[in-house]
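Dear colleagues,

As part of the handover before I leave the project, I'm documenting each prediction I ran so the next person doesn't have to rerun anything. This entry is a single chain, and its sequence is reproduced below.
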Amino acid sequence: MSAHLEAEQVTRIRPATRWSVIDPAEVWRYRELLWMLALRDIKVRYKQTAFGVAWAILPPLMTMVVFNVLFGLLMGSEGRPTLPGVPYAISTFCALVPWQLFANTLSESGRSLVLNRALITKVYFPRIIAPLTPVLSSLFSFLIALAFLFMLITGYHLFTDYTFSIRWRLVVLPLLTLFAVLAALSLSLWFSALNAIYRDVQYALPFLIQILLFVTPVIYPAESVLRHFPDWASLLYGLNPMAGVVEGFRWCLLGSVAPDPMLMSASLVITLGLLLSGVFYFGRMESEFVDVV
C-alpha cells in the first residue's frame, strides 16, 4: 500500500502571494481556452452584420476619406500633411491600419475582466487570458485591413506613376506588427486591472484613445511636427508607444525615410517598460479580481 502511494504524483496547491508574477507555462496550458474565446469574439463581432468582415476595412477607410477631404478643403490638394511623393490617402491609411489594431485591442482588453465577469467568478483560469483574447480577435481584423492596404498600394502602382520601393523592408513587417501588439497589450494590462477596481476607467478609456489618435502621427507624418522643434523633441515624442509603430509602418510599406532612431528607441523602451510593469501589476492584483469584478 505504501509503495503504491509513493508512486503517485502529489500536487500541492498554494495560494498566490501579493507579489506573484504571471506564469507563462500556465498560460500556455490554457491556450485552447484563449483560442476559443478569440473565435467567439470574432464570430460575435461579424455575425448578423450586413457588411460582415468589411467592417475591418470601413472604419479606417472612412476616417481616411474624412481627413483627406478636410485637409484638402483647408490646405488645398498640395498642402495636405503627407510624405514627399506619397498620396495623402495612402499615407494616412497606412498609419490607420496599425492604429486600428492598437485602438481595438486597448478598447476591448481594457474592459475584458468586467465583460467576462460571469466566467471569472465561476471557474479558474489565468486571468491574463481575458485581456489577451482581444489581441487575437483584433489581429484578424488587422490582417484584413492590411490586405486592403496592399491592394491600394498595388492600385496606385498600376494606375498612376507613383512607385513605392518597399521590397526587402517587408521582412520587418512582422516585427512592427509585434511592436503594435505589445504597445496595445502593455496598456491593456494596466487598464484592465484598474477597470476591475475603478469603473471610471471604462468611461475614460474612449476619451484617452481619441486623444492618442491626434498626438500620434496618424493623420500627419511625425516630421511635419518635429521639424519645428529641436532634436531632443524626437525623444519626448517617442514616449508615445504608437509613434514608433506608425512611423515604422510608413517606412516599411511606403519606402519613406527611416524613422528617427531616438523616436524609435524611446517608443520601444517605453513599450517594454509598460509591458513589464503591467505584467507585474496584473499578477499582483490577480488574486483580487474575483472579489471586486
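The chain has a mean pLDDT of 84. Residues 23-42+49-282 form one domain.

All the best with the project,
I.
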